[in-house]
Amino acid sequence: MLTTLKNAFKIKEIRQKILFTLGMLVVIRIGSQLPVPGVDTKFFSQWFAQQTGGAFSF
C-alpha cells in the first residue's frame, strides 16, 4: 500500500487531486468549527437531542 501511495505521488495529476482533496477536508473541518452569526446554538443542540429515534433507528 505504501508503494502504491508513493507511485501515486509520482504522477502529477494524481498528486494534485490528492492534495486538493486533503486541502478541502482541512477547510471544511476548520469551517465547521466557526460560529455563524444569528444562529442559536442552544436551539440546535436541543433539536438534535430530540431527534433520537425515528424511521432510521431500527
TrEMBL record:
InterPro entries: SecY_dom_sf. This is Preprotein translocase, SecY subunit. It comes from human gut metagenome.
